[in-house]
Amino acid sequence: MPDLIAEVPPTLLAKLDSLAADYDDIEQRLSDPAIASDHRQARALSMRRSALEPVVSGYREFRRLAAEAAGLREVMESGGDRELAELAGAELPEVEARAAAVLEGVKKKLVHSDDQAVDSVMLEIRAGTGGDEAALWARDLLEMYSKLAAKRGWAFEVLEMAAEPSVGGVRSAVVNVRGEGVWTYLAFEAGVHSVKRVPATEAQGRVHTSTASVAVLPEPEEVDVKIDWANDVVEHLTTAQGPGGQNVNKVTTACHLVHKPTGIEVRMQESKSLQQNKEKARRLLMARLYELELRKQHEERSAARKGQIGTAARSEKIRTYRFKEGIVADERLPGEYRLRDVLAGDMDELFAALLEQETERRLAEL
Question: Which CATH class is domain 118-366?
Answer without folding.
Answer: alpha beta
